[in-house]
Amino acid sequence: MKSKMKGKSTTPTRSYGGVSAENRETQRRAQLIEAGVSGFGKTGFAGTTIESLCTEARVSTRDFYRFFGSKEDLLLEVYDRVIDDAMLAVTTALAEHELEHRDDIAGAMHAGLGAFAESMTADEDRARINFIVVVGVSARVELRRREAIHGFAQLIEAFIGILDQRGLVKHEIISPVLYVALVGAIHETLTDWVIRSERPPLDGVVADLANLFRVTLAA
Question: What letter does residue 19 receive in the DSSP assignment?
Fold first, then answer.
């Protein structure tokens, strides 16, 4: 929402209670993001209102529109954070595994998949946002979701490229479509896990996915 007073900032500048205006703004935005995680995760996109988000975050609707143009903008911010956290978890797990077990391909697959699964499912609300809530919201959200899928596919491709340099696999004979298919398999498997009323141990799911990767790449 744009201010009608052109050329003047709508951001408060005075300090209050020893907290600077900039820090208050950062805190309010963070509160809205956390409210988005909780709201979207528990009641979905359609069932969550801007008013309920503001109540949860303890901010005004005016504050909301200073940071986000719409409820969908907030959902995308929340989704991006979930994806960024998962990407960081995977790359960190692979790097740590690399230091100790350089040529252990099976172990690396299990480490990367385990980090992804744990990051995406450690918090129930975030798990539902990634695997359920963002599906079918709008063409814009779907585009962002596809970008995330391709981002993880590129991560797998980069990992296989490293193994190819060591002569452990043949990168050039693997179709790029296969990487997207593998990410799709991970996504659908974990979606099924999230919506189950009785969930099998996550370690077993990760082990099955690692076996899928191993068999696929071996073939």
Answer: B
Could you tell me if 90 and 155 are in contact, meaning their C-beta atoms sit under 8 angstroms apart? yes
- Alpha carbon 196 to chain centroid distance? 20
**What sign results for the dihedral spanned by CA atoms 84, 132, 42, 123?**
negative
Residue 63: pLDDT band by 50, 70, 90 thresholds? very high
Q: Where are the alpha helices (DSSP H) in 101-200?
A: 105-121, 124-128, 139-165, 176-195
Residue-wise DSSP of 49-112: -HHHHHHHHT--HHHHHHH-SSHHHHHHHHHHHHHHHHHHHHHHHHHHHHHH-TT-HHHHHHHH
* Distance in angstroms between the alpha carbons of the first and the last residue of the chain: 54
pTM score, whole prediction = 0.84
Q: Which tokens belong to 141?
A: 């959200």
CA angle 50, 72, 154 (to 5 degrees): 145
Token digits of residue 100: 């100790």
Q: From its phi and psi, is residue 17 left (phi > 0), alpha (psi between -120 and 50) or beta?
A: left
- What one-letter code names the amino acid at 63? D
The 10s digit of each residue's pLDDT in 20-30 is 667 889 999 99
